[in-house]
């Protein structure tokens, strides 16, 4: 199974970038995984939140193939414990050719992106910056990979 994380805008904090790159490299030992960054929309000062979400949504939808299983990271999505997330990933590896996770922009997703999504996941009831959520999520993917392989990274 191939998997991809699509994000809006570059990660700017060099420490977060280094950690994301480290986990991305670690994940590559377990599965095909990539991160695609969609550039921030320019001149958003004169743009409503809805227009911004629509423009971001158009760019997201261009990156997704009809056969992709699309999972939005969304505060209203399903929450998992790490072991449950690993089991969920393991099932997707059996039944899915390409798994695409999407972290939206600051205002969330457009209705069209919600319509296209197959599932929604929530990492927490708390709110995190879009920079931090990338790192937290990629670490959870790595953790899931080690759980699936029975490796000692995760402790009960």
UniProtKB/TrEMBL annotation:
EC number: 2.1.1.177
Family under the similarity heading: Belongs to the RNA methyltransferase RlmH family.
UniProt catalytic activity: pseudouridine(1915) in 23S rRNA + S-adenosyl-L-methionine = N(3)-methylpseudouridine(1915) in 23S rRNA + S-adenosyl-L-homocysteine + H(+)
Keywords associated with the record: Cytoplasm, Methyltransferase, rRNA processing, S-adenosyl-L-methionine, Transferase
Subcellular location(s) per record: Cytoplasm
Record-linked Gene3D superfamilies: 3.40.1280.10
Task of the protein: Specifically methylates the pseudouridine at position 1915 (m3Psi1915) in 23S rRNA.
Ligand binding (S-adenosyl-L-methionine): 73, 104, 123-128
Primary location recorded for the protein, binned into one broad class: cytoplasm
Source domain of life: Bacteria
Keyword Acetylation: no
Complexes and interactors: Homodimer.
Name of the protein: Ribosomal RNA large subunit methyltransferase H
Pfam family, one: SPOUT_MTase
Signal sequence segment: none
